[in-house]
Amino acid sequence: MSRPDFYLISCEHGGNRIPSRYRDFFLGREDVLRTHRGYDPGALRMAHDMAKTLDAPLVAATVSRLLIDLNRSIGHPHVYSEMTRAAEPELREEISRRYYQPYRTKAESRIRQAIESGARVVHVSCHSFTPELNGEMRNADIGLLYDPARPGEAELSRRWRQEMREALPEMRVRMNYPYSGTADGFTVHLRRRFAAENYVGIELEINQKHVFERGGHWKELRAGVIGAFVRALGL
Questions:
Q1: Using CA atoms, how far apart are residues 136 and 160, in angstroms rounded to an integer?
Q2: How far is CA 227 from CA 5, 9, 30, 52, in A?
Q3: Phi-psi region of 35 (alpha: psi -120 to 50; beta: other; left: phi over 0)
Q4: Which end of the chain is less congested by CB atoms within 10 angstroms, N or C?
């Protein structure tokens, strides 16, 4: 008898909010908060829609990644930005205690509880990427990041890509692009905590050019991506 799946949707870079206590670090740098460096445009909307479709819990953050990056490991050189890196160690620890640790603990606890109840967890972490970085154009519309060494992730990613190719033939879907699925990130951390047969983690990356298109394009794209995922799951 196959195990039931438990679905979890997360969004680590859902907003660009800076709590008032830390705004002095961003004086004169407010503009950068509205760029891709401050948050992932469109990611939170995608995450909300996916969670609603799957009737799945959503763990999402709206504090800016420039305060502390919830998708990085503590100790990673970019977990704090250049704005907060020079803060006193006690203040950095306070930021971690208030925002980083509760977010990660909430998601990890949900996963552990589901596994202990006998389910396999399928986790989708929603992100978006800037069309151009350091003068280089990214040549993909959608990216799926996963660990090729984990069969469940590789197979679900393959099926999802195939379903998207049929539903959204004009979209270029690439695997482990524009980043490697095994680079430092929340799903990588969770893979170290949970065995492959218990946890399947995929990062969804959407090119931000689609988020800012006028008309109904962005809504249709979200529906196409989510519908393809539902079919890939066999629901």
A1: 27
A2: 17, 15, 37, 12
A3: beta
A4: N
Say whether pLDDT at 154 is over 90: yes
Q: What is the percentage of the chain residues whose pLDDT exceeds 70?
A: 100
Which amino acid would we find at residue 84?
Answer: T
Could you tell me the residue range of the domain that residue 187 belongs to?
A: 5-233
Report DSSP state, residue 134: T
> Is pLDDT above 70 for 1?
no
Q: What is the DSSP string of 21-50?
A: GGGGGGTT-GGGGGSTTT--TTHHHHHHHH
- Nearest Cα to Cα of residue 98 among 185, 18, 11, 16: 18
14: domain CATH number is 3.40.630.40
Say how many domains are in the chain.
Answer: 1
Dump pLDDT digits (tens) for 75-103.
Answer: 999 999 999 998 999 999 999 999 999 99
Burial class, 73, CB count within 10 angstroms (exposed 0-12 / middle 13-18 / buried 19+) = middle
Question: Measured between alpha carbons, how far is 122 from 6 in angstroms, rounded to an integer?
Answer: 6
Pair type for strands 199-207 and 142-145: antiparallel
Helix (H, G, I), strand (E, B) or coil at 162: helix
**Helix, strand and coil in the chain, % to nearest 5:** 40, 20, 40
C-beta neighbour count of 64 within 10 angstroms: 26
For the residues 19-37, what does the mean pLDDT come to? Answer: 95
